[in-house]
Design a protein that fits this description.
Layout (H helix, E strand, L loop, with lengths): L3 H12 L1 H24 L8 E11 L10 H7 L2 E2 L5 E10 L2 H23 L4 E3 L12 H6 L1 E4 L2 E4 L6 H13 L4 E5 L2 E5 L10 E8 L5 H19 L15 H5 L4 H10 L20 H9 L23 H8 L5 E5 L13 E5 L2 E2 L4 H20 L9 H14 L7 E2 L5 E2 L2 H18 L4 H12 L10 H14 L4 H15 L10
Antiparallel strand pairs: 1-3, 1-4, 1-9, 2-3, 5-6, 7-8, 9-11, 9-12, 10-11, 13-14
Length: 511
């Protein structure tokens, strides 16, 4: 209880009109410096670079969701996330060349292994998955709904008690009338906290773009790749098993990517997909649009920072309020400014794309394959002057949300290298992998090495195998229900099978 004054004070400060006014003033001032640096070329770099964030959750020996002790983060080299069961591992950026991509794969694997070792000392295990579905011992509703009121401030029991999280939770609760509701096929959930967002885990490949002038080309191409890539990687069709009654119609009705719905509905407080805080972003005309959008975004849970963050790059340390606001500027593709540039001696920062729509994959090899596909594809499309950006933005957005709902069966939208509009999956994926190879060759990777990286995801196109983990999950649940299990029993059985396979050496295409 000793932390109560800090948490209450954090919420009170974030609601103070003077704090908000000063925060917004600092954001505007820092944003102008960034715009000047973009226009002067200070954020241009010598190289492309790549990085990765990977989120996961922990389970106990019975495969039930479990909180992670603080000492795991001290020993395991992983970072905390919103829920006490969440963890994140990061691979620092490397130059986008053959050695850098290999180093990425090694770093991601080593980071996951280190986290697993630290968790293993506590009789816990990490799960590489996009949504937990075996409930904790007390049940999902009790776990997600446990809150305490402290001097008018809501504190969720199973949320990390970081002042930023608590202030953000209370701001969104106020905007949503005190309750976060999730209506999805087969379930209606309502909680007095945004902690339902901690159901979802994802991976976020990063691509540093050398030229600010060309940044919009990469960003706008990235938007048009989200639907086809998500359709190959969807991995979150079910909520925790105890959220459902025994209704087998849920199996076909539930979206393949509930993770997207959960995150949007947890944060957007009733706003539409095109207006909410979490949404599919519009095209960029100039790199400075990235900055303008952060400034224009609504301010949530502001914090005035007077001491530099020891973990921030020298450049980002001078932009603490802007960086804080950018952190809650949630878009499914996001421009990020301020990371230490890779592959250059410049004393500045970088411009990078954070590619956010992808669910956590079942294995490290699957994760690396998806990362390499994304960065190779974006580099290859722009290098080839591919006309994909001729695809209307509305078609790209609709394709993305169709992939959210229907996974590998989504209606795809694409423009071919010849300028023809197509929805044919074979044509789309032929180009996706061809231009990813083009980008990876331009980065200096040999053909055999490229094939090795892309193989785990590319083989999801094969006949006779579900084309995404979400389809595998739905099929396992359907089989169990047909054999007489209730829907909750079938979901738990599927998830235990998934957990037994996830994190191993066998990639999903071979399950």
């Amino acid at each position: 209880m000793g932390e109560t004054p800090d948490l209450v004070a954090a919420v009170e400060r974030s609601n103070d009109p003077d704090v908000r006014a000063e925060f917004d003033r600092r954001v505007r001032e820092q944003a102008q410096r960034i715009r000047d640096d973009i226009r002067s070329g200070r954020l241009d770099t010598d190289e492309f670079a790549v990085g990765m964030e990977l989120e996961a959750y922990a389970v106990d020996a019975a495969d039930r969701l479990a909180p992670i002790p603080e000492r795991v983060f001290e020993r395991g080299g992983c970072a905390k996330e919103l829920g006490v069961h969440n963890l994140e591992v990061n691979s620092a950026a490397t130059v986008f060349d053959a050695a850098g991509v290999a180093e990425q794969a090694d770093r991601i694997g080593a980071s996951v292994d280190a986290a697993a070792d630290a968790l293993g000392d506590e009789a816990l295990s990490p799960v590489l998955d996009a949504m937990w579905t075996v409930p904790p011992a007390e049940g999902t509703d009790a776990y997600l709904g446990a809150v305490e009121e402290r001097d008018g401030v809501t504190v969720a029991a199973n949320m990390r008690h970081h002042p930023r999280y608590v202030a953000l939770d209370n701001e969104i609760l106020e905007r949503s009338g005190g309750e976060i509701t999730l209506d999805v096929p087969g379930a209606h959930l309502a909680y007095p906290t945004i902690l339902a967002e901690s159901l979802a885990t994802s991976i976020q490949p990063h691509l540093q773009i050398p030229s600010a002038e060309r940044f919009p080309d990469y960003f706008n191409a990235a938007l048009r790749t989200t639907g086809p890539i998500l359709a190959l990687s969807s991995n979150s069709p079910f909520l925790p098993a105890d959220c459902y009654d025994d209704d087998p119609d849920v199996i076909s009705a539930t979206p393949h990517e509930l993770r997207i719905h959960v995150f949007e509905k947890s944060i957007n407080a009733g706003a539409s997909r095109d207006e909410g805080k979490v949404r599919f972003p519009s095209d960029l005309e100039a790199a400075t649009d990235v900055v303008d959008r952060v400034v224009a975004d609504e301010t949530y849970a502001p914090v005035l920072v007077d001491d530099a963050d020891d973990d921030a790059s020298p450049y980002r340390a001078t932009l603490p309020e802007y960086d804080h606001k950018r952190g809650v500027h949630w878009r499914w593709v996001r421009g990020v400014i301020g990371g230490q540039p890779v592959g250059t001696e410049a004393d500045g920062a970088s411009l990078r794309i954070e590619y956010r729509p992808l669910p956590t994959q079942p294995t490290v090899r699957d994760t690396v394959s998806l990362q390499v596909l994304v960065v190779g594809l974006l580099r290859g499309l722009v290098a080839a002057d591919h006309p994909l950006t001729d695809l209307p933005w509305t078609a790209a957005r609709d394709c993305f949300y169709d992939a959210v709902d229907r996974g590998p069966d989504a209606d795809l939208a694409w423009v071919t290298a010849n300028g023809d509009r197509t929805a044919d999956p074979d044509t789309v994926y032929d180009e996706v992998f061809a231009f990813a190879r083009r980008g990876l060759r331009d980065a200096g990777l040999d053909a055999e090495v490229i094939d090795g990286y892309l193989d785990p995801v590319e083989r999801r196109r094969g006949e006779g195998t579900p084309a995404a983990p979400s389809a595998w999950k739905k099929a396992r649940v359907r089989e169990a229900v047909d054999d007489g299990a209730t829907l909750p029993e079938a979901i738990e059985a599927m998830q235990r099978d998934y957990i037994a396979r996830a994190g191993g050496e066998t990639v999903f295409a071979d399950w």
